[in-house]
Design goal:
Elements: H1 6-35, H2 46-49, E1 51-57, H3 65-76, E2 82-86, E3 92-98, H4 109-112, H5 119-127, H6 135-144, E4 153-157, H7 159-187, H8 190-213, H9 220-250, H10 256-288, H11 291-338
Antiparallel strand pairs: 1-3, 1-4, 2-3
């Protein structure tokens, strides 16, 4: 029986992935131009853009987060509003809006017009108000007949703080990638490390493209999921490279392409089985969990699928292309030396 040529198929998969990434870049440019700023290319949540979050006690009241969001958009006209369930049983909701829309979260319009002129003054205005002043809370209280007299909390994240959070998050991802590069180089070889890191970068760009295209909010949950997927994906890649290293010692008379295809075939079922069991678990979390948990689960599902594909069809083929290039370069040097 003829073995499937994963390396050859890798060119097709890589082309598809690049096409998806380019579509994501196109949407990012469109969003950036339409929004008038670099950050508008992404749908940055309050965590990264700055803004205010109001936590409201909804215990004993039946509600749907989409219905709450639609109600608030209708009453306030703020399209950037997001509503999430929180608490063990979803007894609370968290309403978020970006910093430019902060005026609706505190007091009346007349008192907040001046404070909305800048992020700094808006933040100061919020700190001077009590949570019971929140207009958002008043709208929800009236619509759902809440017994609470005030919101649980009104929290503000300023522009400076949100920038620091984003910088620290990106630094965490970068450090993780560098440490993985060093570990794989030490454990295997530099070509394997480069192939693995390229696969991880492609996986990250696929996840980012998904979020850009569907305008999903990029927040702390996304960064946590991203780091989780990086660790999971590199595990699948290391399993394949470990088998490649073993077969490279045994299969001296064959090409690098045959070594890679054989190694992937030998580890394929293990990779698929571990991915399916993980997907079943995280899928149930996404279906049955509250919205805050679902926001964490969704990027993991996307990352799992793209990660397992990149581990099989991208990382190993990149290793083959690298090794073949090194071999061709060595032959060219020997030919030049003999000449």
């Amino acid at each position: 029986m003829k073995k499937f040529n994963f390396v050859k198929a890798g060119r097709v998969v890589l082309s598809v992935f690049i096409a998806v990434i380019l579509i994501g870049v196109g949407f990012w440019i469109y969003n950036m131009v339409a929004g008038g700023s670099f950050a508008e290319g992404f749908n940055l949540d309050v965590d990264f853009s700055g803004g205010t979050a109001v936590t409201i006690d909804m215990e004993g009241v039946e509600y749907n987060t989409d219905d709450v969001r639609n109600l608030l958009i209708e009453k306030t006209g703020i399209d950037s509003l997001s509503v999430q369930s929180s608490g063990d049983n979803g007894e609370n909701i968290v309403v978020k809006a970006k910093v430019e829309d902060i005026s609706m979260f505190v007091g009346g319009q007349e008192e907040t017009e001046a404070s909305a002129e800048s992020a700094e003054t808006a933040e100061e205005a919020t700190e001077d108000k009590t949570s019971s002043d929140s207009e958002i809370f008043a709208i929800v209280k009236e619509a759902y007949g809440l017994e609470a007299t005030e919101a649980i909390s009104v929290d503000t994240i300023g522009k400076a703080m949100s920038t620091q959070i984003l910088t620290n998050s990106l630094m965490a991802v970068l450090i993780a990638m560098i440490l993985m590069l060093l570990y794989i180089t030490f454990r295997f070889e530099f070509s394997s490390a480069v192939a693995a890191i390229v696969g991880l970068f492609i996986n990250i760009f696929i996840m980012l493209s998904f979020y850009i295209i569907f305008r999903r909010p990029v927040n702390n949950s996304f960064i946590a999921a991203l780091l989780t997927i990086i660790g999971y994906s590199i595990n699948n890649t290391i399993i394949i490279f470990d088998r490649i290293r073993e077969n490279n010692r045994k299969m001296r008379a064959v090409t690098y392409e045959e070594i890679a295809n054989t190694s992937i075939s030998q580890t394929l079922m293990r990779t698929i089985n571990s991915t399916i069991t993980t997907l079943l678990t995280i899928g149930m979390v996404y279906i049955l969990g509250v919205s805050s948990i679902r926001e964490f689960a969704l990027p993991i599902i996307v990352g799992l699928l793209s990660g397992v594909i990149s581990s099989i069809f991208i990382c190993a083929p990149i290793w083959v292309w690298w090794k073949n290039a090194q071999k061709a370069k060595g032959r060219a040097k020997r030919s030049a030396f003999k000449a």
